[in-house]
Write a structure and sequence with these properties.
alpha+beta, M1 Pyruvate Kinase, Domain 3, about 15% helix, globular
Length: about 190
């Protein structure tokens, strides 16, 4: 019996982007992404390893070399619409959030279980790391183009910021492609 169970859910790619290595958080829209084991070549989050950050400081001193499970930032189109509504905006540009992929069609996307897989038609497979908690950095990017709205991002994005992921099997992604969701076949942790 497989350890990963295919669900009835697929996410259609509605937006792709990458954050150039020599820039801040702002993503550049893309018509196609070619993913290797290190993520996207030339991208800010590229690499099989990375320096640890504040998100794991209770485990490692900042700057410690660790496995890079934050190669990609994946967001839900439906959750982005809820963030925008709570911010009083018509739309939140995924580029402001440093997004790699925006998907439509997977409910409660931010809480897809860690270790779940998203698999594309060519076999490209992305492994979910965990929820990508909101921080102030996207708010600063939003503020540059929408004065007075940046501070609204973090509270509006609570439980809606999407997930981080890493490349398990290389391949390509294009807008319109569908990613099938596989989840771990196990009960919830109950200590």
């Amino acid at each position: 019996m497989p350890v990963l169970r295919k669900t009835e859910y697929t996410g259609q790619i509605t937006w792709l982007g990458h954050v150039p290595a020599d820039s801040g958080l702002q993503a550049v829209p893309a018509d196609r992404l070619d993913l290797g084991f290190g993520g996207i070549a030339g991208e800010r989050h590229e690499g099989e390893n990375r320096a640890s950050c504040v998100r794991v400081r209770n485990l490692h001193p900042e700057g410690t070399e660790i496995r890079n499970v934050r190669q990609l930032t994946i967001l839900s189109e439906e959750e982005l619409a809820l963030i925008a509504a709570d911010m009083g905006m018509e739309r939140v540009d995924p580029a402001h959030l440093g997004a790699t992929i925006v998907l439509r069609g997977i409910p409660d996307f931010t809480f897809v279980p860690p270790a779940s897989r998203l698999q594309g038609p060519d076999g490209v497979t992305l492994t979910v790391d965990m929820e990508n908690r909101p921080c102030v950095l996207p708010g600063r990017e939003i503020e540059k183009d929408h004065t007075g709205f940046g501070a609204r991002f973090k509270p509006a994005a609570q439980n809606r910021r999407g997930i981080t992921a890493w490349v398990e099997r290389p391949g390509s992604l294009m807008p319109g492609s569908e990613l099938s969701l596989f989840v771990p076949d196990q009960r919830a942790w109950a200590p």
